[in-house]
Amino acid sequence: MLATLNKYRAAFSVGLQSNLVYRVNFAIRGFFSFFHLIVVFILWGSAYAGSPVIGGYSFAQTFTYFVALIVVQFMIGAFNEDYQISEEIRNGLINQFLLKPVNYFAYRFSIYLSARLVTGLLILLPLVVLFPLLKAHLTVPLDAWRLGIGLPALAMSACIQFGIAYCFGLMSFWFLEIQGLVILSMAIESVLGGQIFPLDLLPAWLFRISQYLPYYYQMYFPVAIFTGRINDLTAALTGLGIQACWVVIILGVGQVLWRRGLRLHTAVGG
Amino acid sequence: MNFAHYARIWLTSARYSIVRTLMFRGDFFIWALVELFWMAVNLLMVSVIYQHTSTVAGWTKYEMMLLVGTSLLIQRYLMGFFWSSIFEMGRNIRSGNFDFFLAQPGNVMFMATTRKLDPDGLMNSFVALGVVVYSARQLGLHPSVADIALYALMVACGVIIHYSMLVLCIAPAFWITSAQGIEGSYFTLSEFSRLPRAAFKGLAQVAFVWILPVVVVSNAPASTLLHGFDLRVVGWLLGITLVWFTVAVIFFHRGLRRYTSASS
């Protein structure tokens, strides 16, 4: 057990080191993300000028939602994991894992965790620098239950984020080029995951449907708990249950794709 | 080196790009679908916002759709005619493959930025145009032929400005070869082009309306369709088109002098 843990701890540490090399890139990317907040501020500020409450929420609540979204994205978002996995399959680099007592999923997940540790800490940098400017427009509810449900929701969102990227990466066993598929799914995720607008602003029936889809639990769900867009404890607990189901389903699909994909895989050279 | 010579070169590149697209039809459909979906996402955002409010900075829903449609139209043309070539330029400068363009029979900037066409982007420009026409109909606009010609000219200016901005975002690769991710700055800027000009106040107005052209590029043609010809708006757009294109040409050629190639 300890030996197994040590194996992935080594992978984590290697991931940490290779991600630290790109710390400046990540920091720049973080600052650029906050540039996006200017667009949000101007667009939603103008919309709120016409009506002080939109969908039952004030401007500060909506703005806080978008700020939290950026922070959470850097903490748990799958950036290019799908692409990395796809590259390893196409280049044959994956062969080395087939010959070693290493679980590829666990190996990749360890690297994903280390990468998010680096980006998650780096996003705090622009947040701290810009906090004096943002402060007046932020409002964060401080109920204890939000932390109790929000943190497991965040952890499961990370599993869903990584799980979906893992599945897309494994598609390379079947298709030569997955970039188009990945970007198409990114577009779907960005809408149904609540990155373009808070999902509760959708027409009620569409919002209801979105709650049963995995995208809702990728980002929107934990952010909505932390920023006060979900205020009902029972609804939050139900959400947590559905989220857990999606984690199991997505990880299961990942396992099936891995087994089936390996049957098709041909390793050449050495 | 006359116009006919460049037209012939461009046509040859276009033919090559189309033949290539026909070879990878599946790819073409997926990418066309991707772009179509992203356009739908932008329109969806507009309609969701207007479900909860009736005006944004004084713009009604279909006026906003017209603005977003115009912004998408300009972007589709940029994607269709120039994006792949300019995007690859950064990579080529870093890898040394840029040498290839230096040996070609024409101006290096022309050769490097017009080599590849993306038919999927061009196809979707019809969808963006459809959005503009639909919004204009909903608004009960009846533009004259002269208005439409003026709109087309202003969209063309918009494409030239975006082209110049993109070149300016990629050309730093001549100086700082490790500056990957600099391309992303263009996307951040282009987000502003979908906002109405009246929404910008104070410092944001200075930065995004007066200094950077992103907001004017889409607002000028849209407001010409909505409110008719205004010499100040048209003059301003033509002026900044000239300025930005000149700056991009000068910057590119300065960078080109720094290009040292890369040995293997």
Structure characterization notes:
The complex is a heterodimer of chains A (270) and B (264). Chain A is mostly helical. Helices cover 74% and strands 0% of the residues of chain A. Chain A has twelve helices and no strands. Chain A is globular. With 264 residues, chain B is mostly helical. Chain B has one domain (3-258). Helix content of chain B is 75%, strand content 0%. Chain B is built from eleven helices and no strands. Chain B has helices at 3-23, 25-52, 61-95, 99-102, 108-113, 119-138, 145-170, 184-190, 202-211, 214-227, 231-258. The model of chain B has no long low-confidence stretch (mean pLDDT 88).
Keywords:
heterodimer; A: 270 residues; mainly alpha; 12 helices; globular; B: 264 residues; 0% strand
Compute the CA-based radius of gyration of chain B.
19 Å
Task: Give a count of the beta strands of chain B, DSSP E runs of length 2 or more.
Answer: 0
**Which regions of chain B are unreliable across 5 or more consecutive residues at pLDDT < 50?**
none
What kind of oligomer do you see? heterodimer
Radius of gyration of chain A: 20 Å
Distinct helical segment count of chain A: 12
Helix proportion of residues of chain A, in percent? Answer: over 70%
Low-pLDDT parts of chain A are none
Domain count of chain A: 1
Question: Secondary-structure blueprint of this entry?
Answer:
The complex is a heterodimer of chains A (270) and B (264).
Chain A: H1 2-21, H2 23-50, H3 59-76, H4 81-91, H5 95-98, H6 104-122, H7 124-134, H8 144-170, H9 179-192, H10 204-210, H11 220-227, H12 233-264
Chain B: H1 3-23, H2 25-52, H3 61-95, H4 99-102, H5 108-113, H6 119-138, H7 145-170, H8 184-190, H9 202-211, H10 214-227, H11 231-258
Short description:
Chain A has 12 helices and no strands.
